[in-house]
Amino acid sequence: MVTISLCMIVKNEESIIERCLDSVQHVVDEINIIDTGSTDRTKEIVQNYTTRIFDFIWCDDFAKARNFSFQQATKDYTLWLDADDVLTTEYQQKLLQLKKSLNPNIDAVSMDYYVQLDEDGEIEISEKRYRLVKRSRNFQWQGAVHEFLHVKGKLFHSDVVITHLPLKKDRDRNIQIYERLMAAGHSFSARETFHYANELKSHQRFLEAINHYNTFLDLDLGSAEDKIQACLNVSDCYQHLRDSKQAIQSLLQSLLYERPSPETCCRIGHLFMEQFKNEASIYWYSQAIQQSSTTLGTQRRAYSTWLPHLQLSKLYDRLGLYENAHEHNEAARRYKPNDKRILDNEKYLYSRLNKGK
């Protein structure tokens, strides 16, 4: 059976650190906590779980902090978590099983990451991330912000799931780091340009965001997934700027990089729906249902499940095709049985169907 070192970087996490450590302490063989300057009770709480607490002077660089955390590990494999991550009881058991069964020739193990849950506790956004890596391979983190772990070799995808349950978010932290780097003359990589554009977009600096997304796309160095997401985000920016023509052109540009994802199809369908181009909208929402994604990246499940069915229901209602509308609403309800929008639409469609009898 392999052994596991848990490595975490933390700061002022007194409200959530116990929840995380409680969910993993009985599974891992070592806990390493790297504190980057807590002024609350974080370190005091952590002392109940481990004596391996290390101070790291914060330098606006997450990769350096994570690489320092990995340097403290002493076991066969290194597991990384953030303070707002948890393993449910089911996945604690699966991680224990993984420890017992993992082939020691495996270099890195990916796990599903439930990034966001909806109000019913259903998965809304998920990703796959490499969470468990062989210590002897000395894999390194890269990137001051939105850091990523560069792995290679023999890779394995497990059935372990990490769930993200945030209680707080410092929405200005990342953009401030990027802008301090820029002021210091740092030359952004393609990946940094993409993520800086994301920060600009989230701060509603839409024209600046568009410029940086276009710079990223012109570099032609990012992954196909990031290029597609850049196009979708540019479209969002143009919609905020009330430029529907540019918005749809940006969506169509995403088709240059890969077959359309469910999200791309839904977004194109939405723009046609707003213009009452019902047949075109039906085509694209129908495509969303038929598409599937196979990447390691972000999966927004609504776009391939209940959302296109609900929109198709509304579109068929526009056309007076109430049987088709009801069929798609029922399909949406199977994914979200308690959603008020779907339930209200069900009542409305029953009234239309009964009126015709």
From TrEMBL:
<dbReference type="InterPro" id="IPR001173">
    <property type="entry name" value="Glyco_trans_2-like"/>
</dbReference>
<dbReference type="InterPro" id="IPR029044">
    <property type="entry name" value="Nucleotide-diphossugar_trans"/>
</dbReference>
<dbReference type="InterPro" id="IPR011990">
    <property type="entry name" value="TPR-like_helical_dom_sf"/>
</dbReference>
<feature type="domain" description="Glycosyltransferase 2-like">
    <location>
        <begin position="5"/>
        <end position="157"/>
    </location>
</feature>
<dbReference type="Pfam" id="PF00535">
    <property type="entry name" value="Glycos_transf_2"/>
</dbReference>
<protein>
    <submittedName>
        <fullName>Glycosyltransferase involved in cell wall biosynthesis</fullName>
    </submittedName>
</protein>
